[in-house]
Amino acid sequence: MLKIKEKYSLQPLINATGVVIHTNLGRSLLPKEAIEHVVEISCHYSNLEYDIGEGKRGKRYVHIVDAIKKLINVESALVVNNNAAAVFLCLNTLAKDREVIVSRGELVEIGGSFRIPDVMSNSGALLREVGTTNKTHPHDYENAINDKTALILKVHQSNFRIIGFTKETSVEELVSIGRKNGIPVMVDLGSGCFIDLKKYGLTNEPTVQEVLSQGADIVTFSGDKLLGSAQAGFIVGKADLLDKIAKNPLMRALRVDKMTLAALEATLRLYMDEKEAIKKIPTLKMLMENPDNIKKRAYKISRLLKKEGIFTKVKEDLSMPGGGSLPEIGVKTYVVALNSPIIPQEFAKKLRLGEPPVIVRIKDDLIIFDARTIQESEIPNLIKAVKEVFSNDNKRGI
Ligand SMILES: *Cc1c(COP(=O)(O)O)cnc(C)c1O
Question: What confidence score (pLDDT) does residue 150 get?
Answer without folding.
Answer: 98
